[in-house]
Amino acid sequence: MKTQLTVIATAVALAASFSAHARDYTDATMGSDATNANNTANPVFDNLETQRASMNGFNGPAGQRTSIIDQQDNGNYAEASQGGVEQYSRIVQSGDLNEAYVEQDGEQHESIINQVSTGAGNLAEVTQLGGYLNDSYIYQEGENNEASVVQINNTEYSDSMIEQLGDSNKADVTQEDNVDETWSMISQNGSFNEAYVEQYQADMSASYIYQKGADGHLADVYQTGQDHVSTIRQNGTMGYANHSQAGSGNIAVTTQW
């Protein structure tokens, strides 16, 4: 299970001007590209912090409370709806113009969506409501894909990880009215990608965005509450990064190179 103080072993120590927070992954600290943006985003936030510590909210026996959907070719639709405790959903789609929707209500849920296209236009949406230790991981490969994660009214430790490889992709994360410590980690590799994160009323939460590609990065983070961390790293040209934080004890770091 996740512990309240998560320590990422490979993180570089924070600069003296920053106080340590429960879920930090900040470094950077000025300088000429801050040691090449901390050796190019700590290699991609340590593979999304080893997929958020193996997404260990789900502890059920193998094969119990499990939904697995595997679809190949184009234009497929997948839907999984689960309620209760310790539900697991995995959706794998290969091809173009596929759609995947997951809704999980309760606690200790895990959702994994993997979409790989030869062209463009896949959509993944995950909604996790209530409880604690709800985790979502979305991987999309191709162009013009969209990933959306909504985590609302979770008590603590609910996390979202999104990886997108290709151009003109969009990632949107909303974590609202969670009690404490939610994470959002987004990695986008390609041009003209967009990342949006909103974390409302969940103290000691963190957002990490890494965007790499030739042109046109956009990252926007909005956080309310206290003791938040927001890190945006953009490698390429024409990058735009915006942090909006309301509350006390927050940290925001942008590195563009």
Provide structural commentary.
The protein has 257 residues and is mainly beta. It has one domain. The chain is built from one helix and 17 strands. The strands form two sheets. Strands 1-3-5-7-9-11-13-15-17 form a nine-stranded parallel beta sheet, with helices on one face. An eight-stranded parallel beta sheet has the order 2-4-6-8-10-12-14-16, with no helix packed on it. It is flat. The N terminus is likely disordered.
Most strands sheet: 9 strands, parallel
Helical content stands at: under 10%
pLDDT averaged over residues? 81
Multimeric status of the protein:
single chain
How many structural domains in the coordinates?
1
Count of strand segments: 17
User: Ends: how far apart?
Assistant: 37 Å
The SSE order reads HEEEEEEEEEEEEEEEEE
Q: Structural class from helices and strands?
A: mainly beta
How much strand content do the residues show?
Answer: over 45%
Radius of gyration: 17 Å
The outline comes out as flat
The number of helical runs is: 1
Tell me the strand order in the biggest sheet: 1-3-5-7-9-11-13-15-17
Could you outline the blueprint of secondary structure elements for this entry?
Blueprint: H1 33-55, E1 66-72, E2 77-85, E3 88-94, E4 99-107, E5 110-120, E6 123-129, E7 135-143, E8 146-152, E9 159-165, E10 170-176, E11 183-189, E12 194-200, E13 206-212, E14 218-224, E15 229-235, E16 240-246, E17 251-256
Parallel strand pairs: 1-3, 2-4, 3-5, 4-6, 5-7, 6-8, 7-9, 8-10, 9-11, 10-12, 11-13, 12-14, 13-15, 14-16, 15-17
